[in-house]
Amino acid sequence: KNEVEQSPQNLTAQEGEFITINCSYSVGISALHWLQQHPGGGIVSLFMLSSGKKKHGRLIATINIQEKHSSLHITASHPRDSAVYICAVRSGSNYQLIWGAGTKLIIKP
Amino acid sequence: SQTIHQWPATLVQPVGSPLSLECTVEGTSNPNLYWYRQAAGRGLQLLFYSVGIGQISSEVPQNLSASRPQDRQFILSSKKLLLSDSGFYLCAWSARVKGAEAFFGQGTRLTVV
Questions:
Q1: Is the pLDDT of residue B1 over 70?
Q2: Is the pLDDT score of A1 beyond 70?
Q3: Distance (Å, rounded) from C-alpha A34 to C-alpha A49?
Q4: Among A33, A55, A73, B14, which residue has the least CB neighbours within 10 Å?
């Protein structure tokens, strides 16, 4: 079993829909990252969370430390939101990142 | 401000050729440095990390090596590439503080032919 599990693996939705991507982890963490990867490969950091909730524009990220679970929400989704969204947790004495496999999101116009 | 540079962005190399990917960090000192790899259809996986000059830890046995000749320079190398080395390589750094944010290079898409 992977230490970081994301769901769903693939998600296709219509423009304007509310999107939720989930991340569960099984290790102790010091922080959790949500990142976005576009087809060209470049990775952009969206959020880093250690507790509670963060909001940036149409993106909202929440984390429940007790349940070892985080969610990324996108409100009023747009085709330009199409990308792979990756959850990664910081764990261990060297603060390495353990990565989820990613969720491929396609927003249709 | 802190920045991280990783190059090249894309690379096509023949089997058996050498590899050198470079990552440099600006605006900080004494960072933890990391190399990750994403094989096709899989999540990113830690290859190497470094807590200081000349200090390299390997997480996964492979055909690759890493070096840190300067505090803010991290190099990923191979003497002879294999087809299975194809993938997306990502350099990252973070401060040596619990909960410090991680910063990422743009990545290198390597295709071994």
A1: no
A2: no
A3: 8
A4: B14
Q: How far apart are CA A102 and CA A7, in angstroms?
A: 8
Measured between CB atoms, which of B9, B44, B101 is closest to A48? B101
Distance from CA of A46 to the nearest CA of B (A): 11
Best B4, B23, B33, B38 member to test A by mutation, with max A CBs in 10 Å, is: B38
DSSP assignment of chain A? --SEEEE-SEEEEETT--EEEEEEE-S--SEEEEEEE-TT--EEEEEEESSEEEEETTEEEEEETTTTEEEEEESS--GGG-EEEEEEEEETTTTEEEE---EEEEEE-
Structure tokens at B87: 């993938």
Amino acid at B87: G
Which residues fall within 8 angstroms of residue A30, CB to CB, at 6 or more apart? A50, A90, A91, A95, B98, B99
Q: What is the pLDDT of residue B48?
A: 94
